[in-house]
């Protein structure tokens, strides 16, 4: 065996696959462990043999960017190795994603919680943009949540470097509901502000607990946006009618203040949200500016990541993890208490004041736990 | 609450982005360590190949004149020039060419020329690893081309010639695909210069030849070790300095002024920059040209006699290695079949076990994973 192949084999031996946890069109995800430390990891196995052009672009993008990006709010790529016709990415293990948390009806979000998730999202995104990388697929289920509550940007399969001025890029990126109007109008020249629009949509979704701009087709998406934010005028978005896919809409929607829909939001909140959802891409707020927005410095301060709401599945998985780890103390009260275990843990992580505020969520959560098989 | 000022300071005192790159962390050498890497690689390769020769035909290695590290390096430099030709053929952007050249140079810091060489005996024909490095570069720089179109345009090539080595090339690169290039830095310097005091507004129009000359020096630097020793911006400045020393000096002074007025600025000029510049200029002028055809021809002729017989399709050693691999695969298949049989004999329910039973899986998801 040659030196390079031997090194690859050695890398492979450092990681143990345990259980298959998901399967997509081009990859299988396994849960596993670092052999030396027992640390939990995830292995994303990409089947390469099936592609006639070899290593496919999304795998290459993911590896290229994650190899370079090391940040608390970006998923960590621990290792890469190949096995015959497969490429294996060893990633840090993350329990859940923001979509699961948004959908978990038993959880109540405080404004401070939303602020914390937004701060972490903007921090991760600012780091990507600082490194001249566009994510191009931000949505709640690509924002993963670690067991310590940290939010991490993941799935860099559509990411790319900033293009040179005048260099065309594809507009077929970003999941529809989070896609900015310039891409829906087939603009081929764009920048980091496309990601900011997505973050705006996620921000709104955290408050509404349902997708904010949920169009049912690409054509309908634009209509959905205009209905919510008013049809753009030439003044607020100069030149948009010259974009390739522009058609004069039959209805002109008036501007309705964000306040009408987000009734409970503070003025700071709506100010930042509005700046993310500006039609004119160049006037949209940047990630760095967003981090300096008064919203993040006003009361309530962002919740500490460890005290953020977490969903039942995540808690169950953590409890199972501890049971597996042979934590006898926690198990000693007998099997009857087992179901409540996650809630007990949660209380430990929460300060007394927060416990009072969260009691409703806890109660619902508790019921759900008890009823679940 | 941090003030706006504190925030700005926090941003500016961060280390340069370049220093967080894999290029900075894993692909930087001193001239001495680079020479050391190459000679160690060469020694190890010769030892292994000599052994292989002996294993199949005792005494056969005695008269083989193996390549030394310098000769290997000469060939690699030659391969880099061929990348340029290929890129011209496809009209690939500069980014693709520069990336492919870097991949190839990095590849040969981990692999010997004597292992991975021509699939064909004609010295002038396309080399596999070069094809693969270039194909990979089209993808990693976001300029993908279909493999079919790619091989169609290169005579005597099959898709498998390119794909067979893709993993090996990627592994050799440590899956670090991102490369910082001097030509990008040069463009930045060129833009900066246009904004300098006293530079006429039509400078970019009237002086394009300066930029082109500098770019050609950057291209010449790709045939040298400069990128392993210096940063892209140092190489770019050296190239510009060769084209227009006075303007380069003026640019450097403007940066100095910035860094003195704000000591924490990331543009601070490290001491010794002038010495580095002179060294890079020397490298470009002395080593930045294609090797002599005659010298390459001579080394290549000897290479054909000393390359690893296990890699020469059809040779005794190659066939023996294939047979060995086949035997292992066969053993593995048998072992798997036995396991499945054993599981079936124990009456394992295909729909899953009782919870407490030891796990025996009928479907092996890792089937193609355990290389041995």
Tell me about this structure.
Chain A: Its EC number is 2.7.11.23. Chain A: It is an enzyme of class 2 (transferase). Chain A: GO terms for molecular function: ATP binding; cyclin-dependent protein serine/threonine kinase activity; RNA polymerase II CTD heptapeptide repeat kinase activity. Chain A: Residues 15-296 form the Protein kinase domain. The complex is a heterodimer of chains A (373) and B (372). Chain A has 373 residues and is α+β, with helices and mostly antiparallel strands. Helices cover 38% and strands 14% of the residues of chain A. Chain A has three domains: 3-92, Phosphorylase Kinase, domain 1 (2-Layer Sandwich), CATH 3.30.200; 96-297, Transferase(Phosphotransferase), domain 1; 311-371, no CATH class. Chain A contains 14 helices and ten strands. A five-stranded antiparallel sheet of chain A has the order 1-2-3-5-4, with helices on both faces. In chain A, strands 6-8-9 form a three-stranded antiparallel sheet. Chain A has a two-stranded antiparallel ribbon with strand order 7-10. In chain A, a hairpin with a 3-residue loop joins strand 1 (15-23) and strand 2. Chain B has helices at 4-12, 22-26, 31-56, 69-90, 94-107, 128-140, 147-152, 159-163, 166-172, 182-194, 203-206, 208-221, 226-229, 232-243, 245-261, 273-287, 293-306, 316-345. The termini of chain B are far apart. Residues 1-12, 118-126 and 356-372 of chain B have low confidence and may be disordered. The chains are: A alpha+beta (373), B mainly alpha (372). The A-B interface holds A 2-5, 7-9, 12, 17, 20, 28, 30, 45, 48, 52-55, 57, 60, 63-65, 67-68, 70, 80-87, 130-131, 160-161, 288, 292, 297 and B 1, 4, 7, 11, 17, 20-22, 44, 110-111, 115, 135-136, 139-140, 142, 144, 146-148, 159, 162-163, 166-168, 170-172, 175-178, 365-366, 368-371.
Tally of alpha and pi helices of chain B? 18
Assembly classification? heterodimer
Low-pLDDT residue spans of chain A? 325-373
Helix content range of the residues of chain B, please? 55-70%
Query: Uncertain spans of chain B, ≥5 residues at pLDDT below 50?
Result: 1-12, 118-126, 356-372
Specify the helix fraction band of chain A: 25-40%
Number of extended strands of chain B: 0
Strand content of chain B: under 5%
CATH architecture of the largest domain in chain A: Orthogonal Bundle
Mean pLDDT of chain A: 85
Strand order of the largest sheet of chain A: 1-2-3-5-4
Number of domains of chain A: 3
Overall number of strands of chain A: 10
């Amino acid at each position: 065996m040659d030196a390079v192949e031997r090194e690859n084999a050695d890398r492979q031996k450092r990681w143990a696959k345990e259980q298959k946890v998901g399967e997509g069109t081009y990859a299988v995800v396994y849960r596993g462990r670092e052999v030396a430390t027992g640390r939990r990891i995830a292995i994303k196995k990409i089947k390469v043999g099936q592609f006639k052009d070899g290593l496919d672009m999304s795998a290459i993008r993911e590896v290229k960017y994650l190899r370079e990006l090391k940040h608390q709010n970006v998923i960590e790529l621990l290792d890469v190795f190949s096995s015959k016709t497969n490429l294996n990415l060893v990633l840090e293990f993350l329990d859940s994603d923001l979509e699961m948390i948004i959908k978990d009806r038993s959880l109540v979000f405080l404004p401070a919680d939303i602020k914390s998730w937004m701060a972490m999202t903007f921090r991760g995104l600012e780091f990507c943009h600082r490194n001249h990388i566009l994510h191009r697929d931000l949505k709640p289920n690509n924002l993963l949540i670690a067991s310590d509550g940290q939010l991490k940007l993941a799935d860099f399969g559509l990411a790319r470097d900033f293009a040179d001025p005048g260099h065309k890029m594809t507009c077929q990126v970003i999941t529809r509901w989070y896609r900015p109007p310039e891409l829906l109008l087939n603009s081929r020249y764009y920048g980091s502000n496309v990601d900011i629009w997505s973050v705006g949509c996620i921000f709104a979704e955290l408050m509404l607990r349902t997708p904010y701009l949920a169009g049912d087709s690409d054509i309908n998406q634009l209509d959905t946006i205009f209905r919510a934010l008013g049809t753009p005028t030439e003044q607020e978005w100069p030149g948009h009618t010259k974009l390739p896919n522009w058609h004069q809409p039959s209805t002109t929607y008036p501007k309705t203040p964000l306040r009408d829909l987000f009734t409970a939001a503070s003025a700071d909140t709506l100010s930042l949200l509005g700046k993310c959802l500006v039609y004119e891409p160049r006037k949209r707020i940047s990630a760095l500016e967003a981090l300096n927005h008064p919203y993040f410095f006003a009361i309530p301060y962002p919740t500490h990541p460890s005290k953020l709401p977490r969903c039942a599945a995540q808690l169950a998985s953590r409890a199972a993890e501890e049971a597996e780890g042979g934590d006898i103390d926690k198990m000693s009260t007998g099997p009857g208490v087992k179901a409540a275990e996650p809630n007990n843990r949660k209380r430990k992580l929460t300060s007394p004041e927060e416990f009072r505020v969260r009691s409703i969520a806890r109660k619902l959560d508790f019921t759900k736990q008890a009823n679940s098989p | 609450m941090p003030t706006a000022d504190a925030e700005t300071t926090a941003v500016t005192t961060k280390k340069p982005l370049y220093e967080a790159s894999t290029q900075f962390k894993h692909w930087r050498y001193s001239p001495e360590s680079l020479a050391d890497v190459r000679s160690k690689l060469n020694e190890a390769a010769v030892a292994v190949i000599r052994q292989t020769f002996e294993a199949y035909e005792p005494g056969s290695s005695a008269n083989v004149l193996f390549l030394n590290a310098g000769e290997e390096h000469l060939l690699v430099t030659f391969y880099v020039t061929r990348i340029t030709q290929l890129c011209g053929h496809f009209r690939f952007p500069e980014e693709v060419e520069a990336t492919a050249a870097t991949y190839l140079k990095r590849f040969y810091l981990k692999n010997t020329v004597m292992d991975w060489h021509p699939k064909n005996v004609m010295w002038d024909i396309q080399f596999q690893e070069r094809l693969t490095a270039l194909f990979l570069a089209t993808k990693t720089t976001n300029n993908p081309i279909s493999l079919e179109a790619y091989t169609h345009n290169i005579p005597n090539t099959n898709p498998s010639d390119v794909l067979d080595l893709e993993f090996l090339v990627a592994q050799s690169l440590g899956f670090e695909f991102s490369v910082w290039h001097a030509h990008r830095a040069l463009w930045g310097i060129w833009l900066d210069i246009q904004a300098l005091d006293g530079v006429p507004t039509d400078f970019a129009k009237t002086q394009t030849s300066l930029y082109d000359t500098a770019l050609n020096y950057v291209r010449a630097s790709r045939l040298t070790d400069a990128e392993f020793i210096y940063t892209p911006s140092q190489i770019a400045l050296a190239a510009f300095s060769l084209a227009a020393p006075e303007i380069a000096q003026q640019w450097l002074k403007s940066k100095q002024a910035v860094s003195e007025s704000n000591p924490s600025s990331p543009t601070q000029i490290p001491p010794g920059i002038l010495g580095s510049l002179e060294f890079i200029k020397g490298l470009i002028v002395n080593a930045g040209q294609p090797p002599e055809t005659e010298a390459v021809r001579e080394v290549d002729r000897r290479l054909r006699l000393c390359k690893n017989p296990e890699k020469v399709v059809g040779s005794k050693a190659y066939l023996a290695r294939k047979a060995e691999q086949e035997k292992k695969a066969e053993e593995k298949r048998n072992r798997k079949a036995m396991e499945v049989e054993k599981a079936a004999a124990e009456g394992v329910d295909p729909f899953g076990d009782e919870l407490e039973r030891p796990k025996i899986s009928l479907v092996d998801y890792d089937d193609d994973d355990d290389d041995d």
